[in-house]
Design brief:
There is one protein chain. The chain has a single domain, classed as 3-Layer(aba) Sandwich (Glutaredoxin). The protein is built from 7 helices and 10 strands. The strands form 3 sheets. A 6-stranded mixed beta sheet has the order 1-10-9-4-5-6, with helices on both faces. The chain has a two-stranded antiparallel sheet with strand order 2-3. A two-stranded antiparallel sheet has the order 7-8.
């Protein structure tokens, strides 16, 4: 989950996430865990306990990773547009691995950090093994060309990064199908109203057949994601 309050001062460099962000994201972690149907119950509880300890500050955050065998979890289909107006669908990704993540383009805290981890992990692979990256927007209000261009520079996104955009209703169906919780709150202070977006910070790794093979809940490290991708491409 992330809480996003865009501001001019914060736009230059995203700060490190404060402990409060980790504490507040726990409900979204719990929601994401309901997706892990292929994981044993004991493993699911262990996963939750690790995040609970990290959120409480009792331990360093550890990656939440669930994996599935080939053919066990076909990824939900979607039909969106990318930042250049080109069609972007699950079917168009077939034939190569892919990362499907969920990002707020106006975010200035957790999302830029997660995006950099994803870009770094993909860049660490040989060019022929690099997966497609699809960042489904969780904030349609920020889906404009200027924002995407600015994010590409500030967040150091790779050339293969593609945003998935559409109407709010269409995006909401994609969020729901992937189990992504999104909550928007309007906050007014000194006569100025801002929209705070909170969402599940989750990334799926898909294989070339379009099946979900791994789920990672942020925070995870470049090496964690790179290991998952190398394991997938080695098979």
């Amino acid at each position: 989950m992330s809480a996003h309050q865009p501001s001019v001062a914060a736009a230059e460099a995203p700060p490190e996430p404060a402990p409060s962000f980790l504490r507040r994201r726990l409900p979204f972690v719990v929601a994401a865990l309901t997706l892990v149907a292929g994981v044993a119950i004991g493993g699911g509880f262990a996963l939750l306990q690790r995040h609970a300890r990290a959120a409480a500050g009792d331990a360093a955050p550890e990656p939440a990773v669930a994996t599935w065998a080939p053919g066990k979890r076909p990824a939900p289909a979607f039909a969106l547009r990318d930042q250049h107006g080109q069609p972007l669908s699950l079917a168009s990704l077939r034939g190569r691995p892919a990362i499907v993540t969920f990002i707020d383009p106006l975010c200035r805290n957790l999302c830029p950090l997660e995006a950099r981890v994803i870009s770094s992990a993909v860049a660490s692979l040989p060019a022929a093994q690099r997966p497609a990256i699809v960042a489904v927007s969780v904030n349609p209000d920020g889906d404009d060309a200027a924002t995407f261009r600015a994010d590409a520079v500030r967040w150091r996104l790779g050339a293969g990064w593609r945003w998935g955009v559409a109407s709010h209703a269409t995006l909401a169906r994609v969020w729901q199908s992937y189990g992504i919780g999104v909550r928007v709150a309007s906050i007014t202070h000194a006569g100025v109203t801002v929209h705070e977006v909170e969402h599940t910070e989750a990334s799926y790794v898909l294989d070339a057949a379009g099946d979900e093979r791994a789920l990672l809940l942020y925070p995870f490290r470049t090496t964690d994601l790179a290991h998952v991708l190398r394991t997938l491409t080695a098979r």
